[in-house]
Q: What sequence folds into this?
């Protein structure tokens, strides 16, 4: 199989077992651009590494120095096979082109809930919302996401630039990742500047999200889609 270049991954596909998300720090906008080019060459010039890898996507951070990597897998075993057999040669090719990349960590997730699939706008921006909890608790992860969905369902003034939200729970029970698609970075900035604490009106439902017990940290980051690949024929 060869690599096929796509516009974006299908986050709702039913055959995804786990998702891997990681961040690289490449220090400057120019190195960010060169790293994307090196990734495109390293992946596009080789056979698709494993049938269990369903998609691989890269996003350029608005900060000009980070890259988000998001990959969908049929299951953990497929990733472990790739880690042993195909990961190093691709990373070596990228490191040769752009030495000194700092790899900041890898987390494993399962997709838990997504907003309804009735919006077909093409995203110009991906916003990640990371939420960290005090210790592993899968029930708490899911309850937090359910609380967000209750707030979304009662939101009197939905942000017009929001397209979709895909809420992932980490397999270790300690964090949630919302992969949110927006029309543009400006649309997300406008939503943040509206009255209230972040995206969302000052409703009791959003207040419960913002004061949810056990949340210890997290962050919000904006990215531009840079590269998305899947298995070709």
A:
């Amino acid at each position: 199989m060869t690599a096929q270049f796509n516009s974006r991954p299908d986050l709702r596909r039913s055959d995804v077992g786990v998702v891997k998300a990681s961040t690289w720090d490449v220090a400057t906008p120019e190195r960010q651009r060169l790293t994307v080019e090196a990734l495109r060459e390293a992946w596009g010039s080789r056979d698709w590494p494993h049938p269990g890898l369903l998609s691989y996507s890269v996003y350029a951070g608005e900060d000009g120095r980070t890259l988000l990597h998001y990959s969908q897998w049929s299951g953990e075993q497929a990733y472990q096979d790739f880690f042993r057999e195909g990961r190093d040669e691709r990373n070596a090719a990228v490191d040769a082109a752009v030495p000194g990349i700092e790899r900041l960590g890898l987390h494993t997730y399962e997709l838990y809930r997504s907003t309804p699939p009735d919006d077909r706008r093409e995203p110009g921006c991906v916003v990640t919302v990371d939420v960290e909890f005090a210790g592993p608790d899968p029930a708490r992860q899911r309850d937090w996401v359910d609380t967000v969905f209750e707030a979304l369902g009662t939101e009197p003034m939905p942000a017009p630039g929001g397209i979709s939200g895909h809420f992932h729970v980490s397999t270790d029970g300690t964090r949630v990742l919302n992969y949110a698609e927006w029309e543009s970075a400006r649309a997300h900035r406008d939503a943040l500047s509206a009255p209230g604490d972040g995206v969302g009106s000052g409703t009791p439902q959003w207040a419960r999200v913002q004061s949810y017990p056990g949340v210890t940290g997290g962050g919000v980051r904006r990215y531009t889609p840079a590269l998305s690949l899947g298995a070709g024929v």
Notes: The two ends are 5 Å apart (CA to CA). The first strand starts at residue 3 and ends at 5.
